[in-house]
Every structure is written in structure tokens, then in C-alpha cells.
Design a protein that fits this description.
The chain has about 200 residues and is of the alpha+beta class. It has helices at about 1-5, 15-30, 35-40, 45-55, 75-95, 115, 180-195, and strands at about 40, 70, 105-110, 135, 140, 145-155, 160-165, 170-175.
């Protein structure tokens, strides 16, 4: 499922290779989870225009193609969020050299391409994630397929990540080794957001 989502191209036309890979992923998903594929529904032009308007997105791609939208079943979001939580553990270990301890607080949320490319996406909150590693394989830059930004704060031993899988999916994750500190900060923020100014 994730393999299919990350192969979706929005900002430029898909190559023949891109289309073949997307089709192969779609076939594999249909073989494993036919009920998910059957639950996918293409939106009408009016529904697509409404979605794009709500997300404050243009109705055409940068290369002039009309944008189409597909409604995905809730299982897609659930699977993407579970994957994001696992990826948060792996990235935390990669950047800190420490395993995430039992009882920690991990927050993970996946965003569709319409959500994260929208001006509504709170990108300003991710500016503190100022580390951006360059990923390559055999000298080939992989940033068009996968890239991430992160920041680590010690103490209280926490980290935040913003991950992009091509043009199809983004994930925002935080890891707090101290769950009590996380819950306290969460409560403080909720209280600040509710208090009148």
C-alpha cells in the first residue's frame, strides 16, 4: 500500500517506469487486500474541485495537467500511521544511537499529498527541524524518492521528524523518552489553546 502511495506523481508527469511501478504495486495491493482497492473511489470533478478549494490547492498541476483525486479507505490512513510510528523508532535510533525505551511517547501522523502540499499544512512548525541528511545510493541522490528533516533536544531526550516519500505521502513524528514530560507539555499546550487572549 505504501509502495503504491509513494509512487503517485503530482508535480510532474509520470514516466513509463513510474507508471509500470505504480501499476505493479496496485496489482500487489489488489491481490493482498482486494477490499481496500474496491473501497477506493475516484472523486467527481466537482468533488475534486471542492477538495482542492478546501485545501487551497490549484486545480491544475505545475505542468498544466488537470488534478484528479481519489478517496482512500480509512485502512490506508491507519496503515500509514502505524508505519510512521515504526519509522519514528528507526529514525530516532539512527540520529541518537539510542533505542526508544519502553513506555516512551511516540506521536506519528501521515498526510496525503493534498494535505501536505496545501498552504493549510502547518509547515512553519517544522522549521525547527533543521537537520537534513543527504541520502544517496551508488552516488545517486534519492531525495526525490525519500527525504527527511529532524531535530533532537537533549534533555529532555526528544526528537521530531518530517518525512517525505516522493510526492505521495508525508509523515510528522515525535519521540519523547519521558512520557510524563510529553503528557505535561501536551496538557500545557491544550490549556494555552483554550484560554482566552
Amino acid at each position: 500500500m505504501l509502495g503504491m502511495l509513494v509512487r503517485i506523481r503530482v508535480n510532474h508527469a509520470a514516466s513509463d517506469t513510474d507508471r509500470k511501478e505504480l501499476e505493479e504495486c496496485f496489482k500487489k495491493l489488489n491481490a493482498r487486500r482486494p477490499e481496500w482497492v474496491q473501497a477506493m473511489r475516484g472523486l467527481s470533478r466537482n468533488q475534486t474541485r471542492k477538495l482542492l478549494s478546501e485545501q487551497r490547492l490549484p486545480r491544475v498541476s505545475p505542468d498544466g495537467r488537470e488534478v484528479y483525486a481519489v478517496e482512500m479507505p480509512a485502512e490506508f490512513a491507519d496503515a500509514a500511521n502505524r508505519y510512521a510510528a515504526k519509522l519514528a523508532h528507526a529514525l530516532y535510533y539512527k540520529v541518537t544511537g539510542r533505542s526508544v525505551p519502553a513506555g516512551c511517547a511516540v506521536s506519528a501522523k501521515a498526510f496525503t499529498n493534498a494535505e501536505w502540499q496545501s498552504p493549510n499544512f502547518p509547515l512553519e512548525h517544522t522549521r525547527i527541524l533543521d537537520n537534513q541528511p543527504t541520502l544517496s545510493r551508488s552516488g545517486v541522490d534519492l531525495s526525490d524518492q525519500f527525504h527527511y528533516r529532524y531535530a533532537v533536544v537533549e534533555p529532555p531526550n526528544c526528537a521530531g521528524f518530517l518525512v517525505h516519500f516522493g510526492e505521495g505521502l508525508a509523515m510528522v513524528m515525535t519521540v519523547f523518552e519521558d512520557r510524563a514530560a510529553y503528557e505535561l507539555r501536551k496538557a500545557e499546550r491544550a490549556s494555552a489553546n483554550q484560554s482566552p487572549n
